Amino acid sequence: MPITVLILYDRKSAAIEALAEAAAEGVQGTGVARANLKRVEEAAREDLLTADALMLGSPNWSGVTGSLKLWLDETGDLWEEAALAGRPAAAFTTAWGRHAGLEMTLLQLIHWLLACGMIVVGLPWSDRMRYSGSYYGAAATDGISDDDLAQARDLGARLAIIAARLQAN
Hints:
6 strands; six-stranded parallel beta sheet; 43% helix
């Protein structure tokens, strides 16, 4: 059975949805995983618990959106239960400007992942990062570019491959 990667995001902008879809393409393109793409309002706690890997996305609204934060809070004390511990995870975000809080939003998402004992997967440095994205996760500013979409695909593929490697051991 292939690996399942839950791509969970709050759709407050078309750009965040485009990154989520590109990440799903990256997951599917590996041939070792399938993407379960869910908007926060469609997702259930069970989606988290059955996923082999998780990718969280939120547009920057002075950090993570309230609706995503509320959904994560209402899933229960997953960190106390160690329900997600040891699973790989990644993050993605969008903002209107480069210094609008992209890294803060990514770090807030990563904080939740770490609190749950997950293994955070980032992006290794590439020349593309001079113009787009972050090694903390996939990111887009002021709309979305082909480089932004490529980084989301790369992160989705990287997460799926790491999840498959972990499951094989």
